[in-house]
Design goal:
heterodimer, A: 302 residues, alpha/beta, Rossmann fold, six-stranded mixed beta sheet, 11 helices, B: 485 residues, Nucleotidyltransferase, domain 5, elongated, binds cobalamin
Chain lengths: 302, 485
């Protein structure tokens, strides 16, 4: 790297660090650590002893320097978690917006690649089976494998699950394990309570690893439930990585198409709060059972 | 078997003011606006005024008595003109405004009309509410939301001027001052004074003028007192500490002015003269309606502009309050509604907010707080139905929501033993699950309404109408509003 370039880089790093420190987002110690690495031209080795976390200013903070109508920007920002009203530095995003973007992207990747923890499954008292996708990589590369149970899982489900119930609940990691850990502890008990109060017969809920939406059809063919509902992690976005969907279908068979499913999406603390979603799903399930139909067929009965 | 997604309801608004009485009938479209993926949210999506009455002079028996029979006749004949019967009206409000609200038989009037104007019609009065309805009817509320600018609406009527400050469409402050166009009465198109009201006498004193009923006045004689009154109206927008005449004429606490105001809309009978091209130049022009409204309007505009305020034109002037009353008085709320048909409508339900800050950790502690509050209420001999209001559970976790449900049931044991319906109003988005938890914890079937995402305050009064949209929502009218948050 040419010397001039190198100098420029140092200046940039220094100003970024100073900006962060000024905003109280980085301690003096953290700043010094990065600066000394930059000055000595050594790669920055993360200081593993330091538990220091960078915290971002709240999303709603005004980042436009001289807004013409600050109230208008505030009102618009309130309506959406999208990255609006973030200002700019020349033609580029401001440091804070860029860092936030990178951080959110990292969170989204974690949500996809991490597994739902053993500890969590035990705490929630959930039996766990796996799809035909043996690893996360295979799950991502081969959607078809995520749509059916592994041979072993077929055996477990046939042996352990109660048959011919009205409702079978599946918890499926899908594209966000974070969504499962964040929402299930409040959603599941609310849903179970609602179904029980309504006198609906429910099989014991269980967890499916590396699963996709269609896996519910495979499970239903074994347990023979009237309705099967998957609480599944949604593809994470940069707004939240904790969003969960509930896909429901009434008596799926080999002719089932996507339009036969009913979906309630965006269940997370910034969307439909999980406990409230549990109560709402109870209503939807009651409607599906009464109509003996889900998806577009249900809507057509309205 | 699924509920229909939209419904139309007919709403009436009746405004009995110091000078005029009006009525409008509107059709409100209510619709589920949430997409299929989300929990349904029922909102009023369209408002159409289908009938505007003539503007009547408020019939009075004498200065302090409204002619109730004549008011009923007005309502009856306007219904006929609109081709409607009282049974066809779903909701609405009667509002007795301004000086008239002080009249002796205001309550009798409201009682007489509530039966007349349909089963769900709600009677309301009070300066705060009046101001807000006027600002919603004039378009100030909408303007503040569309332009993202704090906007004040001043409804200048015969006896009072009512302020409502709007921020992003929501009323955030209100006040009322005893200034109006009808405080001194004259021979029509003449220059002889026939009556001087109390507030006008106070104003006269402060300008050092001596005028008496029976005297004749010139425009230069009249102008200073009207100007003084107009300046009082503008003072309230400039500061929240008042002295002299403004202080004497204020009928409620002044505006708090937490946000500074630039945009002003004027509605009410005097508004047309605020937005006129020229001011009145002769006494005959001033007293065209037997009062000094045209002059007050003009002087108000002069004072506002001098003080640097920007005047915006309202959508409605003289009909703003009645249109606001007819179209804006109802909120729709839903969540858990387990009620027998005949329990509703419930009128004048007092709101109590038992929890001062956060909600305690255990059902027992929650129950204790609720019990204490309920006992206090019994000491006041209020035996009626109450609504328990709160911000939210301790956290949004299912566990905390269940604890809240158990605590409420425990705390309300005595109240519920008398078979009164359980009414819960909660701000957080958890009305369904809270209702579900309450049902699950109670070992009997309860009559219950659990409404969420509605802000109410301790000692507010609410009316709850009959369910709409297949039982999914109930119309709720909030009646007392305070802005000391
Ligand atoms: C990715 C996605 C898609 C992709 C799916 C690609 C794929 N094969 O994996 C594509 C672009 C094809 C798609 C299409 C549609 N989608 Co889409 N989609 C999403 C998104 C962004 C993420 C879904 C997800 O994470 N699934 C979880 C993973 C693990 O599931 P999966 O098994 O890998 O994938 C399946 C599901 O994603 C499912 N799916 C995807 N969309 C929809 C929509 C409906 C109604 C149903 C029943 C199933 C379904 O199809 C996939 C294949 O089986 C969500 C947004 C969200 N917040 O959830 C919207 C979302 C689910 N989609 C929606 C809609 C409306 C549609 C369409 C109907 C759009 C249209 N008008 O054509 C179509 C219908 C799909 C169909 N096959 O019939 C709505 C559903 C609203 C509702 N309840 O009615 C959502 C919530 C977006 C929104 N907020 O509007 N979608």
């Amino acid at each position: 790297m040419a010397v001039a370039n190198n100098e420029l880089e140092k200046v940039i790093i220094q100003s970024v660090m100073e900006e962060l420190a000024k905003k109280g987002l980085l301690s003096q110690k953290g700043k010094d650590h990065v600066m000394s690495a930059a000055m000595m031209d050594t790669p920055i080795v993360p200081n593993t002893e330091s538990k220091e976390m960078v915290t971002f200013p709240p999303q709603e903070e005004m980042q436009i320097s001289n807004p013409f109508n600050a109230d208008a920007v505030k009102a618009m920002k309130k309506l959406t978690p999208a990255r609006i009203g973030i200002g700019r530095a020349g033609t580029r995003p401001k440091t804070m917006s860029l860092l936030r973007f990178l951080a959110d992207h990292a969170v989204a990747q974690d949500a996809v690649f991490l597994d739902v923890s053993e500890e969590f499954l035990q705490r929630m008292n959930l039996m766990s089976v796996q799809s035909a996708a043996a690893s996360k990589d295979e799950f991502l590369q081969r959607p078809d494998l995520g749509r059916r149970l592994s041979v072993e899982a077929v055996k477990t489900v046939s042996e352990k699950c109660e048959k011919n119930v009205q409702v079978q609940i599946l918890i499926v990691d899908g594209l966000s394990s974070s969504a499962i850990e964040a929402n299930i502890p409040d959603l599941l008990p609310a849903l179970m309570q609602g179904l029980k109060s309504s006198g609906i017969k429910v099989g014991a809920p269980f967890f499916v690893k590396n699963g996709r939406v269609w896996i519910q059809d495979h499970v239903a063919s074994i347990v023979n439930s009237d309705l099967i509902i998957s609480l599944i992690g949604e593809r994470p976005g940069l707004g939240t990585a904790e969003s969960l969907s509930a896909y429901m279908i009434y008596r799926p068979n080999e002719n089932t198409v996507e339009a036969d499913r009913t979906v309630i999406s965006n269940i997370h603390k910034g969307g439909i709060p999980p406990a409230e979603a549990g109560a709402h799903l109870t209503d939807v399930i009651k409607q599906i059972l009464a109509a003996k139909a889900s998806g577009v067929k249900l809507n057509q009965q309205k | 078997m699924l509920e229909s997604t939209n419904q139309r309801i007919t709403s009436v608004g009746i405004d009995i003011g110091t000078t005029t009485t009006q009525l409008v009938i509107s059709q409100l479209t209510i619709e589920n606006t949430a997409s299929g993926t989300l929990v349904p949210r029922v909102e009023i999506t369209d408002k159409e005024v289908i009938h505007r009455s003539q503007i009547y002079f408020t019939p009075l028996l004498d200065r302090d008595l409204i002619n109730a029979a004549a008011v009923s006749q007005i309502v009856e004949s306007e219904y006929q003109a609109a081709g409607l019967t009282p049974e066809m009206i779903d909701t609405g409000a009667v509002i007795i405004t301004g000086e008239t609200a002080k009249k002796e038989n205001a309550k009798a009037i409201i009682d007489a009309l509530a039966g007349f104007a349909g089963d769900f019609v709600v009677a309301t009065a009070g300066a705060n509410l009046e101001a807000i309805y006027a600002g919603k009817g004039s378009g100030a509320a909408q303007y503040s939301a569309q332009r993202h600018q704090v906007t004040v609406n001043i409804d200048v009527g015969g006896g009072t001027s009512n302020y409502a400050v709007f921020h992003e469409g929501k009323a955030v402050d209100s006040s009322c001052i005893n200034v109006g166009g009808h405080l001194i009465e004259f021979d029509r198109q003449g220059d002889r004074i026939t009556y001087i009201s109390e507030p006008a006498k106070i104003a006269l004193e402060s300008t050092g003028q001596r005028l008496q009923a029976g005297e004749r006045v010139t425009l230069p004689q009249l102008r200073p007192i009207v100007k003084a009154m107009a300046e009082c109206v503008v003072d309230v927008l400039k500061t929240s500490t008042h002295v002299g005449l403004t202080k004497e004429l204020l009928m409620t606490p002044p505006l708090q002015l937490a946000q500074s105001i630039r945009k002003v809309m004027i509605s009410g009978g005097v508004a047309d003269y605020v937005y006129a091209l020229n001011g009145p130049t002769t006494m005959a022009e001033v007293t065209a309606f037997g009062d000094f409204g045209p002059l007050l309007g003009w002087e108000l505009r002069v004072s506002l502009e001098k003080a640097g305020f920007v005047l915006e034109k309202p959508n409605e002037t003289v009909r703003a309050t009645v249109i606001g009353t007819g179209t804006q008085s109802v909120n729709l709320s839903g969540s858990t509604i387990h009620l027998q048909e005949n329990t509703l409508p419930l009128r004048n339900v007092m709101v109590i907010s038992p929890f001062i800050s956060t909600i305690p950790e255990t059902p027992q502690k929650i129950a204790e707080v609720v019990k204490t509050q309920m006992l206090r209420l019994q000491v006041d001999h209020s035996e009626g139905v109450v609504a328990i209001a709160m911000r939210g559970p301790r956290t949004m976790s299912f566990a905390d929501i269940s604890i809240l449900a158990q605590g409420l049931l425990l705390g309300l044991e005595d109240y519920l033993s008398t078979d009164k319906p359980l009414i819960i109003v909660i701000e957080a988005d958890c009305g369904k699950v809270l209702g579900q938890c309450i049902s699950a914890s109670a070992n009997r079937s309860l009559e219950m309404v659990c409404i969420d995402q509605l802000e109410v305050e301790n000692c507010d009064y609410i009316d709850i109408g009959k369910p709409l949209m297949g039982g999914r929502v109930v119309p709720v009218v909030l009646k007392t509003l305070v802005f000391n948050r």
